[in-house]
Fold these 2 entries.
Entry 1:
Amino acid sequence: MGTFEDVVINAKSAAVTVGKEAGRLVDISKLRFTAAELQREVSKKHEALGRMVYDAYKSGSSANISFDEHICAIDDLYKKIDDVNDKINTLRRKSACPKCGFRNDDKAVFCSQCGAKLGSEANPDDNTVPSGPSADSDFTADASAADNNFSGED
Ligand SMILES: [Zn+2]
């Protein structure tokens, strides 16, 4: 029965789990911060681009300037934001159970709360379409067999 050592060991493993969880949360918040910064950068670039267009229009030289560089820079930032968001999603998906939301250990394959299978790195075939015999067959053998079987109690 629950010895003192058991309690200590449980407390220790719980502490490790909490530590890992905290680390992951820190990672996520760091990534969120990065995403926010990139988002701000995009806004700045948009603003600069808008100003450029305005100035060019005002000075009548809009045909001469190239926006390619600025567009590329913004696209680059968008790509970075996508990357960061992907990382955030991976970190979140890793830990949280899709069914009950319980946060499991990194290496957990099944949820320790409800037993659901956890998506690991990626979830390639998430849309599992139930394949099997659909109940739409015209096979009415059952009905015809039972139909003329009105033999009474002979
Ligand atoms: Zn679960």
Note: Residues 97, 99-100, 102, 111, 113-114, 116 surround zinc ion (CB under 6 Å).
Entry 2:
Amino acid sequence: MPMSSSSFDSSGSSDVTPSPDSFNQTVIEEFRANGGRVGGPFEGGDLLLLTTVGVRSGREHTVPLGFVRAEGLLLVVASAAGAAEDPQWYRNLLARPVVRVELGEEAFDAIAVPAEGARRDRLFAAVVRAAPGYGDYQRHTERVLPVVVLEHTGADVPPREIAGLADRILEAHDWLRAQLRHLRAETEAHFADGGGARVPSLGLQIRQHCLAFCQGLTAHHSGEDRGVFPALARSHPQLRGVLERLAEEHRTLSGLKDGLAALVAGIGTAEPGAFRAELARMTAALEAHLAHEERELLPALAGIPFPPAPAPAPATAPSPAPEPSPEPSPTAAPHR
Ligand SMILES: [Fe+2]
Ligand SMILES: [Fe+2]
């Protein structure tokens, strides 16, 4: 049997019977217990674990998948063994592109970007050369099997030494700024000839990066609103006014983030000049918040350790808590 994503996923269309979920669970446990190695029919195969977040449930969903490396990229195929429908994990990553990858003994966050058009076809041909079974799956379905590029989230952010909570916040801001730069560069490539012909194959790629930025921003602000800001308000009462203004900016940015997603969703028909102006306005507002927060809070955060120190004695002012991580997020738990 070829190494195949569909052989393991829990889409219900697997060739593993009678219980794909329990089979997957066994493979996942073996993978984690043995540094990414599994035995049986998959001995020696290229296998990773992919964790997505359910579109409706909001729950994490892990599947073992075969992978292929081509053109320097890490690829998985949503083959579902050639079934008529896309597997659940693929539907999940279209809604929430920031995913968790376990590969060997390494674990990292990634942005899942399905390839499109000629790029998809070229990558799929490379996949079939490495694992011919995917060609069989493609012949069994009318779906064009999606080829998903798993992009390491830390790839375009310089590593930062984490000596304290301030560095942790800066690391998250570095990542958010990098995503905005990425988004601007991709939209410029989309309007490649200055406003005439577009590059349609970039549509989904831009959308995924935009959603990843929004997902990362939501997780980061949620960590600040629920953890860092309340703790700072207790330990530094003089900052309460500043913290209230920053929390208000979070609410404003939440609306702006939705506007950004809507703007990008319409890129296929947008007038380039208006699109660029609106994107510039939105990114300037987002970047202004990051700069404002750093100006106001970093001095107060200096010296606060991360990970947090052990609980203080009752008479001591509490230290800010770390950011919670409600879902896989590069801003909550970057891995390099
Ligand atoms: Fe913030
Ligand atoms: Fe922040």
Note: Residues 203-235 form the longest helix (33 residues).
